[in-house]
Write a structure and sequence with these properties.
Length: about 325
């Protein structure tokens, strides 16, 4: 089979190449999946340079999430050949076949295409843990979403609408804002990534937002502390800007807000029962049609550099999908 492999940690995708590998064989409790679609996220790009908090040993096959068809099962795996599934892990998605433990495999919602399903789990799990578990969101709350045109940002806007929140979406270009408006009709869409404070305060009647969803960091985080409501929750989702911000403790003290770190995968590992509830919740919403992942573009395996390059250039709205068998 063919796979994309990170053979060395290097800038500008210099360490990536397509390699030939044997098709793996599932052991007890494992599932071999024919990967139909692999979704790329910003962490996948960071890992190619060793810049993500998780650092898999080199060489490795990148890709944290995918969808596909069960090709073989190990004893006690609980799936059947031909089942359409979603799979997830730290690595391993950008190849034609991959083995996963049964616990990392979920049935694919029937209404979603393979491309949509590949982009469901990581982004929407992050959104659900952020808004429901860490943000304690209530219908009617104001939510400020930064990076709203990216994969995790769009998922947050989509889920927030389903949860009955009032959404202010921030994106870095008018084209991206227009796309967000077309897809999910937030209550307000404003141009960023900075210079949003006055608009947010005006929209909220001077009170600020109850929840800030921040996968960007840097200056965006700093400015968010100036338009969050008393008792609000500033959710630290990531640092796509490249700068990890710092904050003096007197600022959340005086303004009465919380800074909450979000690690959706670790949340599920620390609290397995709640983790299973989180996954079940997003799967149910996907089945019912209240959330729908956005596919930016689908490309064949040979064009993987274009797919990664689009993330590096910040031109992606939603998820870029690699089709290993195309």
């Amino acid at each position: 089979m063919r796979a994309v492999e990170v053979g060395a940690l290097a800038p500008d995708l210099a360490g990536l190449s397509i390699v030939e590998k044997p098709i793996p064989v599932p052991g007890p409790g494992e599932v071999l999946v024919r990967i139909e679609a692999a979704a790329l996220g910003f962490p996948d790009l960071l890992m190619t340079e060793g810049l993500y908090q998780a650092k898999p040993p080199v060489p490795f096959v990148p890709g944290m999430e995918a969808s596909g068809t069960v090709a073989a099962v190990g004893e006690g795996a609980g799936f059947a050949v031909g089942d359409e599934v979603i799979v997830g892990g730290l690595t391993g998605a950008v190849q034609q076949y991959a083995v996963y433990p049964a616990a990392a495999v979920s049935p694919k919602p029937a209404r979603l295409s393979f491309g949509q399903a590949a982009g469901l789990r990581a982004a929407y799990l992050t959104a659900h843990v952020s808004l429901v578990r860490c943000g304690r969101a209530e219908p009617g709350d104001w939510l400020l979403v930064h990076g709203a045109a990216g994969g995790v940002g769009l998922a947050a806007v989509d889920m927030a609408r389903a949860l009955g929140l009032r959404v202010i979406a921030v994106a870095s270009s008018e084209d991206k804002l227009a796309r967000v408006r077309d897809l999910f009709a937030p209550d307000h869409a404003i141009l960023g990534p900075t210079g949003f404070r006055e608009q947010v305060l005006e929209i909220t009647g001077g009170k600020g937002v109850q929840i800030v969803y921040d996968p960007v960091g840097g200056d965006v985080f700093d400015e968010s502390t100036r338009c969050i409501a008393f008792g609000g929750r500033l959710l630290v989702v990531g640092f796509a800007s490249g700068r990890i911000p710092e904050i003096r403790a007197n600022i959340p003290l005086i303004k009465g807000f919380s800074v909450v770190g979000v690690r959706a995968g670790e949340f599920g590992r620390k609290f397995p029962e709640l983790g299973r509830e989180n996954v079940a919740a997003i799967m149910k919403m996907a089945e019912e049609g209240t959330i729908t992942p956005t596919v930016h573009r689908e490309v064949p395996l040979d064009d993987f550099r274009d797919a990664y390059g689009a993330m590096r250039d910040r031109s992606v709205v939603g998820r870029t999908i690699i089709l290993p068998h195309a």
